[in-house]
Amino acid sequence: MAKKFIKIKLKAYDHRLLDDSAKKIIEAVKEVDARVSGPIPLPVERTVYSVVKSPHKYAYSMEQFEKKVHKRVIFIYDASSETVTKLLKVNIPAGVAVDIKA
Question: Which of 25, 78, 85, 99 is 20 to 30 A off residue 91, Cα-Cα?
């Protein structure tokens, strides 16, 4: 039989907020005595936008803006229904996207 686990993917623009959220999730899961692997940092998704400063003159003068999306993955093994209820009660701050897959 295949091993069952819960995969939690976290995404945010601010890495400090992301690390605090991951710490809260891990503490909640360890209270229920489930095995935890993570947080595993994933590559940062970086998007760069170049915008012309002036609409008419000096088109070669451009501004660059960048957007970074930081990601973490947490695996939870030997999860029970009690583990899931603890996960749902964790208070995650705004700005952190959470994707849970069983």
Answer: 78
